[in-house]
Amino acid sequence: MENQENYKKEKVTVDIVWANIFGIILLIPIVLIFGLPYYLLWMSKNPFSDFTMNAFVINGGILFIAMILGIVAHELIHGLTWSIFAGNGFKSIKFGVLWKMITPYCHCKEPLRVDHYITGAIMPAIILGLIPAIAAIFIGNFILLLFGMFFTLAASGDFLIIHALRKEKKDAYVEDHPSEAGCYVYRKQLIER
Asked: How many Å is the maximal CA-CA distance in the chain?
């Protein structure tokens, strides 16, 4: 970003309570968009024909491990994507955990162009959510479906930030807020002479 003095800085945050409510609301379209086609293609004739307690325990264990690894991967995908656009690359990326909420985070320490920031914000939802859920519908893998649906839902906070940034101009910059769910937006100002 060129000289910060030419930009007006504004804090844009997401209310955590609203983010949780939004996540619950988002569950309905996720189930309809991914779960309904899966059910119609793979489960409508005899949904529990392959069900055994042994398979349930094994698949549940696999899903649990995949979820833990996926949570780490979600933040890593943010960081890797933002590092592509950051002037200092991966040196500008910080990872941590908000222990009060037991929430991992990824923070880019430098402002990025709004489109670059949005790209980094949406990538975990695409890679861990949409692609696995769509693949599960085509191949009939219920564990993959649950994984994809969970990580689409896990991106609900990212969706709220993207929504808040949707009307920003292309010359705006976005910097992660270091301690809150949100960011700072830098809007270019006209310089009077």
From this structure: 76
